[in-house]
Amino acid sequence: MQEDRIPAARIALLATALIFLGHFAAYTYITPYLEDRAHFGSSAVTLVLLGYGVAGLAGNFAAGAIIGSSLRAVYITAAILVAATAVLLNTLTGAAPGVVVLVMLWGAAFGAVPLALQTWILRAPPDAPESGMALLVSVCQIALAAGSLIGGMAVDGYGAPAAFALGGTLALLSAATQIFPRMSRV
């Protein structure tokens, strides 16, 4: 049984690294996107980001209500929605209602991610939950910082759309970690 749980923990940590890299490669640059590409003023940016946070809270509660029936489905859905919203935002310039909807959807999707990852890592090595959680937090923090860095490099070299495309690609790769169901066991 233990042999099956260690690969699941590794896959969970890989998924964590990829989703946090992707999310923060793009989300770190959401304000410049909202100002420059969506043409929102500072008050509108504040309201959109507040909406993102409220949607994130709602996404967390929604995930909590259904995660017991299918952790895998919750995680795949959340990661794909993070990827899709980041990429789709690149297609909208000045379309305020569409931008707001996508940012809120992004918030709801990413709100489900931490709960799914915590559940996943707690199920993976049930005899060592503290170790699993410590690793999860460490991977989250490292990937958060690294994602912001690589997003910044993409913005500096190619502009904000590149950071959003990179973020979406990494989030999609995180969802793809679920193609190994025997290894991930969520």
Keywords:
single chain, mainly alpha, Growth Hormone, Chain: A, globular, 186 residues
The CATH topology turns out to be: Growth Hormone, Chain: A
> How many strands, which pairing sense, and closed or not: the largest β-sheet?
none
- DSSP strand content: under 5%
Q: Low-confidence parts, pLDDT < 50 over ≥5 residues?
A: none
User: Can you count the helices?
Assistant: 8
Order of helices and strands: HHHHHHHH
CATH class: Mainly Alpha
Class of secondary structure makeup: mainly alpha
| Mean pLDDT rating | 91
Assigned CATH architecture? Up-down Bundle
Straight-line N-to-C gap: 14 Å
Helix content: over 70%
Number of distinct beta strands: 0
Query: What Rg do the Cα atoms give?
Result: 16 Å
- In the residues, how many domains can be counted? 1
**Shape, per Cα inertia axes:** globular
Full CATH superfamily name:
MFS general substrate transporter like domains
Concise synopsis of the structure shown:
The protein is mainly α and 186 residues long.
What does this structure look like?
The chain is mainly α. The protein has one domain (about 1-175): Up-down Bundle (Growth Hormone, Chain: A). The protein is about 85% helix and about 0% strand. The protein has eight helices and no strands. The protein has helices at about 1-25, 30-35, 40-65, 70-90, 95-125, 130-160, 160-175, 180-185. The longest helix is centred in the C-terminal third of the chain and has 30 residues, at about 130-160. It starts with a helix and ends with a helix.
